[in-house]
Amino acid sequence: MMSKIPVALKRIIDARHHDPFEVLGRHVHGDDCRIRVFMPQAEKVTLEDGQHPFRRLQGTDFFELETAADKVDEHYRLEWQDKSGQIRKTYDPYCFPPLLPEFDLHLFSEGKHRHAYRFFGAHPYETVGISGILFAVWAPNAARVSVVGNFNHWDGRVHPMRSRGGSGVWELFIPELEHGSLYKFEIRTQDGHISLRTDPYGNFFQYRPDTAAIVVSDSDYEWGDGEWINNRATSNWQQEPMSIYEVHLGSWRRDDQGGFLNYRDLAHQLTDHAKRIGFTHIELLPITEHPLDGSWGYQTTGYFAPTSRFGAPDDFRYFIDYLHQNGIGIILDWVPAHFPRDRYALARFDGSALYEHEDPRKGEHRDWGTLIFNFGRNEVRNFLISSAIYWLEEFHIDGLRVDAVASMLYLDYSREPGDWVPNQYGGRENLEAVDFLRELNSVTHDFHPGTLMIAEESTAWPQVSRPTWLGGLGFSMKWNMGWMHDTLSYTSQDPIYRHYHHDLLTFGLLYAFTENFVLPFSHDEVVHGKGSMIDKMPGDDWQKFANLRLLYTYMFTYPGKKLLFMGSEFAQGREWNDSEALDWFLQEHPSHKGITALLTDLNKLYREQPVLHQIEFEYPGFDWIDCHDSSQSILSYVRKDRDGNEILIILNFTPVPRENYRIGVNYPGNYSEIFNSDSEFYGGSNMGNGSGLISEDIPWMGRSQSIALTLPPLGAILLHKQEG
Predict the structure, then answer these.
(1) Of these residues, 186, 403, 432, 525, which one is catalytic?
(2) 283 is annotated as an active-site residue
(3) Does pTM surpass 0.85?
């Protein structure tokens, strides 16, 4: 009867046993051994030889065999009949010793295991010639953890895991488990609560809204981007052009039925589009697995898995490989600042605040409804840094754009007075997050030279993109949010009022070289009622398109790498909607086609003219001609390369043409107009200086020579001194 069952066995039945190997498996006592298995789906059990039938413990699903120790191999195979009469064979998971090396567990506990994803999660494993899947999960405060899945009827009693002591790690080797199996971890907390959790280190997940992880084999994908990877490691990215096309895969394009495209289809279509316009890189909004489409991927639940919305992990490898083979880099938006509260994922994972802080003043982003990682915990830092390495190493990603860095740096970020906890010195700086970011950047740059770490950081925190050994955070670059806000604020003004706001265009040069900046017109600027880029521009239709052409020319001639969100390259008319594809039909309209033609030529100039990309992060690459002409809303400046070559940029931010507008130049000679945003090819009025210009011996603006120009309305021209 059940009442006579030993306590240890009763704890297995109740799925409460902390050490199932104490009860289950092969136990030798002198010359004898006892094998005990717990198999709720079995009617009969024998050893594979059929000569050693097990007896069922009355009233239970336990089966026992007592025999001579030398009659049973250390690793034995069971043959059993299920309730439908089907005969099955399998090795007993409880006849294997601990398999995770102590050294790996030690490094993980120290926060120094850079490849923790190689043993956490579910991985193909072979021991003593027997193949299977080795599962591992970190849940130090759990009373019991089981692997559950479609292979054991999601029954937490069948495959309880082995605790690896003080490491907080649980492991279990399940022999002969099929790839493609669905699984989760069932966790019993110290207070007896049972929860089903998806694998924090899972590499592939079910299509939403289902949330189980999927057992996948080690990838045998054959990469063809070796030349790209080698060049990346040896090139000087700071002196090379970088024009980034920011993309949300779910709404870039859809299939004929409105469904998502596969990574492989996207690879070809995106590559063709990006190459045609001349972008050097594609940056993806987060494709790490996430439950809610409307989060755009920023509420991540799978830090080691490309979302299954667009295919399998090898499909994503193909996507990246194809881009690389076509000369296009790939940057992934990555979110270590916070994670969602979904109770099937990281939130209170083992019943305690494991990945997050216990104190809500440190552990919650109330504005976003998310939880904040505990950056002071070794295992949490290890989790995040391993994730970063995973994407760079396993998928050949060229860089990570780190989201919401400002929220990580400040303990009082978006908090009311009294609703935050000062650091040990009484300050508002999150010292643990600072240490984490420095370690993150040092490790990624050390392991994968040439890859980029880009901060989305909107405050005046110093030295974000300076080396850690100089006291910086160690990022490669930082988004220039100040430039973006000032520029859009200025260009949204009616031109008649722009002379009152001239400083919005000039102020940015006071700090333009304090960081390595990216100039972003990102997804955040075309959503939540902000309107599309074309919709931000004032005036009638002609003025809107002229303004946008002028704005893009300003961006591509201003110091800093460039980033533009999808749809902006053809002046998408409506605000971005993440649930619908872009309005691609607009590409056929002349005005919209003109924007694409303009950006294509700007990208070509930017790539081919070292003057525009060689010195983007240093003062010698820029010089004002005149920054004071607020009355006419005109800016003029020079961009230079290391050999002293120059391009002159003059921008007229009013719809008034300017005849005989004089600017000073550094050198006498003939000047030609190499670009004009008002060209008829772009939909402009075609006003400019087509016949060329000759400098005059008239001192102007502190220079001994000058030239008189015709400036088109709401237009920009680029001048280059001719040779000879």
Answers:
(1) 403
(2) no
(3) yes
